[in-house]
């Protein structure tokens, strides 16, 4: 899938460049494309330097949380809920702890770190699966919730914005939180409908109702604020949550007699190993996206969509953010490349860049997740996983666009 997507970028760029040369007489188009390749290769290394630090930092703190028993406590706290949502998983099964740790990594926006943990969780669920090739209900729910991108603290999005010079990298904290809530809620409800899960079970309601009430009250409060106040609140909460989480991990780790420094270094080494493998993929995708933009093909496609949006009488500012939304289901690296390219082209705090960042933080690489997670355990029949995951993806994109008009429109 990624081979076809990457090759397609270059083929479309070549066709567009030939058309501009032979029909439009633009002989300089090829020089612009070659220049873009080298510029994007340089940008890849610059982004990678900060990515090394970000992943190393957060996997270090996550290791402290794990050894301090925070992850185990979360697993116990969520155990009654998982028993209702995944009735085929016995209480205390290792899969519950791995699922919790995976959600914690996803919640922190560490998608690259969450993947290896998620693979372990999927293999643990496969041990309970009576079929070797057909996805179980528990596996489907776990995958769809992964594909819904439950992101509570999108540190990698903050990192990309900081790298591009954003004066306040956490500006998109609240928009992402609200948009990812839309995608996760739709993903959960769609799976519950198909699997006939009893969401009205008293235990499930005891978890869901307080969360829904808090979110509803929070949104009601946000509705009373101006756009300037919303942006300011998002910044304050983003930075406060980020630093507060670090302090909680360290304090609890210290109280539990965890050697926090040595543990941090142990986890940071894992982060370094994860990060160093990403550079080739980042170079490949950023260069492909750069060529596509330089050839004029991307602008041509967006202009077509923009005309349709204008014809419908809608505002068109979100259109420049759509490349990130369109490639995100197929490739996280391509979506990252599109996001960075949008920030570089339109400005890091421009409306399209803010929408693209929110989309990136509230959606997931659906087909990639399906291929990797199910492929790792030999699942060939995904059943309703694809439909439910894509529905959650769509909800995340629409939610991101709507929330950004609310906050920044």
Characterise the protein shown here.
The longest helix is centred in the N-terminal third of the chain and has 39 residues, at 29-67. Helices cover 77% and strands 0% of the residues. Helix 4 runs antiparallel to helix 5, helix 6 (137-147) packs antiparallel against helix 17 and helix 12 (279-294) crosses helix 15 (332-346). The chain is mostly helical. It is globular, with a radius of gyration of 22 Å.
Task: Offer a concise description of the structure.
With 409 residues, the protein is an all-alpha fold. The chain has helices at 2-22, 29-67, 70-85, 94-107, 111-126, 137-147, 155-163, 173-195, 202-223, 227-255, 260-276, 279-294, 297-311, 322-327, 332-346, 351-362, 366-376, 385-408.
Query: What oligomeric state do these chains adopt?
Result: single chain
Q: What best-fitting shape do the alpha-carbon axes yield?
A: globular
Give the termini distance in whole angstroms. 36 Å
Radius of gyration: 22 Å
Task: Give me the secondary-structure category.
Answer: mainly alpha
Overall number of strands:
0
Strand content: under 5%
Low-confidence segments: none
């Amino acid at each position: 899938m990624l081979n076809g997507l990457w090759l397609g970028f270059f083929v479309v760029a070549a066709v567009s460049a030939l058309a501009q040369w032979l029909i439009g007489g633009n002989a300089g188009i090829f020089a612009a494309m070659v220049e873009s390749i080298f510029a994007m290769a340089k940008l890849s290394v610059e982004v990678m330097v900060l990515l090394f630090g970000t992943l190393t930092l957060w996997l270090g703190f996550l290791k402290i949380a794990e050894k301090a028993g925070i992850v185990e406590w979360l697993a116990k706290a969520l155990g009654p809920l998982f028993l209702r949502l995944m009735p085929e998983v016995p209480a205390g099964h290792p899969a519950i702890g791995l699922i919790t740790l995976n959600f914690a990594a996803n919640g922190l926006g560490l998608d690259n770190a969450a993947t290896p943990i998620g693979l372990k969780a999927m293999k643990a669920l496969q041990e309970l699966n009576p079929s070797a090739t057909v996805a179980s209900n528990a596996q489907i729910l776990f995958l769809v919730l992964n594909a819904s991108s439950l992101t509570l603290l999108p540190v990698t999005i903050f990192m990309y914005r900081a790298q591009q010079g954003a004066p306040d990298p956490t500006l998109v904290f609240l928009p992402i939180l609200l948009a990812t809530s839309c995608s996760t809620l739709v993903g959960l409800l769609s799976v519950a409908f198909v699997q006939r899960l009893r969401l009205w079970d008293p235990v499930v309601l005891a978890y869901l109702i307080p969360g829904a009430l808090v979110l509803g009250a929070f949104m009601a409060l946000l509705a009373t604020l101006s756009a300037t106040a919303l942006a300011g609140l998002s910044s304050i909460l983003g930075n406060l949550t980020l630093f507060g989480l670090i302090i909680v991990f360290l304090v609890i780790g210290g109280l539990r007699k965890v050697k926090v420094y040595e543990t941090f270094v142990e986890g940071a080494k894992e982060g370094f190993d994860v990060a160093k493998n990403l550079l080739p993929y980042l170079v490949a995708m950023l260069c492909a996206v750069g060529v596509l933009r330089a050839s004029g093909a991307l602008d041509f496609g967006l202009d077509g969509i923009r005309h349709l949006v204008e014809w419908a009488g809608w505002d068109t500012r979100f259109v420049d953010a759509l490349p990130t939304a369109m490639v995100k289901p197929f490739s996280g690296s391509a979506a990252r490349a599109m996001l960075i390219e949008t920030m570089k082209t339109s400005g890091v705090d421009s409306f399209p860049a803010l929408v693209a960042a929110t989309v990136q933080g509230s959606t997931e690489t659906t087909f990639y997740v399906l291929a990797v997670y199910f492929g790792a355990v030999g699942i060939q029949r995904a059943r309703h996983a694809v439909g439910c995951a894509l529905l959650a993806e769509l909800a995340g994109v629409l939610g991101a666009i709507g929330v950004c008009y609310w906050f920044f429109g």
